[in-house]
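User: Fold this; C-alpha cells only.

Assistant: Input:
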Amino acid sequence: MSPPVRSRGSTGRLVAALLGLGLALAATAALATPATAAPASAAPAAARSDTAPPKSPGLAPSDTASDAPTSTPTPTPAPPQLDPLPKSLVTTLPLAVSGTADPGEVIDVSGGSSTNADSRCTATTGDDGRFRCAVQRLPDGPGVPVRAESRTTGLADSGRVDVLSPPTITSADGGATGGGIRGTAYPGATVTVTAETGDSCSFPADSAGNWGCVISRLRDGNHSITATQVAPFSSTRSGASRSITVVVDTVAPGAPTLTSPAPGTSATAGQSIAFGGAGEPGASVTVYASTSRGTSVACTAAVTGTAWSCAAGLPQGDYLVSALQRDSAGNVSAGSNAVAISVEAVAAAPPATTKPSPSKTPVPAQPAPPTAAPSSPSAPAHAETKGWTDTPFSVASAPVVTAASMPGWLRSVGLAVALLLLLVLPARLLVAALSRPREPRDGRVAIFGRNRARSELGEADALLGSAHAASAGSQPVWLAPVVGVTAAALVTLSTSVQDAAAYLRLLGAVALAVIGVNAIWVLAARGMTRHLGLPLARAIVRPGLLVVVAATALGSRFIGLEPALLFGLVLGAVLPEAADRIERGRTAAVQLCAVAAFGVLAWLTVGVLPAPSGDASAFVRELANSIALIAIGSTAVALLPFGGLAGRAVLRWSRPLWLAMALVVYTVLFALLLPVASLVQTGGGVAVVVVGALVFAALSVSVWLWERYVEPLR
C-alpha cells in the first residue's frame, strides 16, 4: 500500500507547531524559576484559586502556578547618608550635622570618641527623608570623626572634620596679677593673650596643654583679657575665649615689720619660737633664718588684717631673722628689719647632777655664776650692731657641697657651658675675624690695627701688660695707691650700704682684698718666670683697667646682682721680650690658677666664720667675702681669650687646658653668684639675656664665616 500523500503545506504547519511548542516550553521554564523560590505554600494557594484558567493538556502542573499572583519582597533598608562636612577648620560650636535616611528613622549622631551627652545628638528623619541636629561639643584635633547611625538597623555613615575651639583661661576672673595669665590649650598650640588695650603676649602650650605668658606693658588697674590659639595642624586661628577681668598690680608691697621675737632673744634648740609683725592685708609672709652656714625658711604666715604670726623651732646657732612678703599679685617686697637671736643647745641632765658634788662645794665655786653674766649682754649686742653689720658682704652665702646641693652645682655647670658656647667662643671668633690681616684696598688705611705689622702687636699683651709698655720706673709713685683706692671705691659701689660707718668698714675690707688679689697676680708671674729661668716679670700699674672695674661693679648694681660680679686687677706683669709663646702661656695659667685658688680659699673661709656680732667679726667676714668675689670674678674676666687678657696667652699655648680652666672657673663663678638667684626671679630678664646671647652668637659666627670664607674670594 502506498503511503498517504500529504497535502501541500502540511510540513510547514508541522514545523511551525513544533517551534511554537518550544517557545512555550522556554517561556514556562523562565517563569518557573522565581516560582520555585517562592514559599511552598504558594503552589496549594494557586491550586485553590477559583480564577485559575483551565489547564492545557500539554502543560505540566508546575506551569499553572506561574499564572497565580506572587507576594511583594520587603525592600532592603538604606543606610543614612551624611551631608558633606566642613572642609575648613571648625572654630565655633555647636556643629550642625544633617543628612538623608528613610522616613521615620531615628538617627544617633556622635562626635569623637567621648560618650558625654554634649558630644551626641539625636534626630528623627522627616517625611522628606532628611534629618538634622547639632553636636554641642567636639574634641580639638585633626580628623575628628563624626558618625550618624540608625537606631533601628544599626547602619551608619561617618566623616571627619578638623576642630579647634578657643583656649581656656584659668586665671581667676577678677583676681590680682602682675601681668601673668595662665590657661590650657591644644598641646603645642601657640596661644596669644590680648588685652582690651591691644597689648598682647604669646606663648606655646606644653605637651599637657598648659601655657602662661606675661603682658608686660599693662598699666595697673582692671583689664579685660581674651585668648586665641593656632594649632600645629592648621594655620587658621581659633575663636576668642571667654573674656575675663584681671586686676593688674605691679607695685611691690612695702617691707613687713618683724616685732617678735625681740632682739637678743635666746632660746633652746627645738623650742618653738614665736615670730610676728605687721604686713599688707592678704599678703603671705615668709620668715628666713640666716647663719654662717646659709639661709633657711623658718615659717610662713598669711597676713590677717594687718598682722601676721607663725612659730618654728631652730637648731643650735646664732641667727639673723628677717621676713619678706608676697602680695596676691605675686609681687615680692624688700626684706624686713633683721633681728639677731641665739639658740642654745639643750643642757644634758648628767652634768647637772654632778655639779652639786662635795668636791665642788667650796666657796671658790660660787663666783662661777657671775662669769655667765657677760654672756647675757652679748646677745643684745647683735641688735645694737644691726646697722653696723648689715651689709651684703657680711651675709653672703658660704659654699655648700652636699647631696642636696648637687642640683645647684649641676645648674652652675650648665650655665658655664652655655656661657662658653653663646658668649665666650663666639666673641673669640668675632675678635679673630676683625683682627685678621688683609691687604688694604685702593690705598686706604685699614682700621682696628689691620695695617700694623705683626711684630708691633706682640704676644706680651696677652698678660694684662704688654712687652712694650712703660716700665714701672717711668710711672709716678702716687699712681699705684690712687688707682688701688679708686678700684676699691668702685667695687664698694656695687652694693647699697645705708650706714656710713658700715660703708667705711666695707671700703677698708675691699681695699685690702684688692691689694691681696693684685699681689697674688704679680707674685705668681714673678715666681713662674724665676722657675723658667727668665728675668723676673715687672709689675706695672694699668689705670685703663679701671673701666673694667667700673663696668662690672656698676653693672652688677644696675641689674641688682647680689653677690656682685667684681673685677679688681689693676696691676699687670710685664714678661721679658725673650719669653716665647709656651712660656707666656704657662705663666698666664699659673697666674689665673693662683688668683682663683685664693678666691676659693676665701670662699671656704666664709663657711667657718661665725655670724657677725660686732665691728671686728663683721670686718673679717666682709674681708673674706670681698676676696672671694674679687678673686673669682677677676679670674673669670681675665680668662677671656681675647684682647690683652691672660686667657688669650693660655689659649695660644694649649686649647684643651684653657677649655678645662674655663669650665671650672665659670662653674665656681655661677655657684658663687647664684645662691640669691636675683636674676632668675625676675623672669623677663632671663628671657632678654638668653635672646641677646643667641643673637650675639649668631652675629659673631656670621661675621667670622664671612671674613674667613667669603672675603678672601672677593
